[in-house]
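User: For my dataset I need records formatted as: sequence, then structure tokens, nothing else. Please produce one.
Assistant:
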Amino acid sequence: MSAQDAGNGVLTVENKEISSAVIKRLPRYHRYLGDLMAQGVERISSQELSVRMNVTASQIRQDLNNFGGFGQQGYGYNVAYLYQEISKILGLDHENSMVIIGCGNFGQALANYQNFENRGFVTKAIFDVNPEKVGTQVRGIPVLHTDELADFLHKNDIKIAVLTIPKEAAVEVTKVLVDCGIKAIWNFAHLDLDVPSDVVVENVHLSESLMQLSYRLAEAANKKK
């Protein structure tokens, strides 16, 4: 069994802590294995996978050994089996119902991204305070008033809440989410949330990511001088 610590992003597998670096690589393994399956590849060695992913073969073996290994010496990895096992590790072997709070351009873009559903992340409702948006739909998903959020959460088995609202509103909405028992928040609001230790938060600060890209661009330019 596994659980994720909200404070440091460490995954625990049978009392063994898995580093955040390994956790971040798991979705890449899942994506590449999915591509291999689509190409009809049935098995692959760590060396062959390393060439495709630009990750060393030893790193791949170390990462997967945290969860049992899955490979056979002289055979490599069964692609479909490894894909299924990583799906289980990532919690993709069952439906994860979500709500999106904020029906602005970004919230609508997330709701329109059908590939989430292909991964088992199903948006059940979107919430907003704008009367022009309440009562409409985005790709068949109803837009409800934020005042209805608590009642909706109590009546539906929602696993994940997605915040795409201004930081001024995020604190109050987060309190509602926590009080209603939400244990996972995907946070696009421009602040770090203060939540109980049993609530998992994945903060996505787009401006910080863009600034990191800008730094790398400047660094590359400086090396050419």
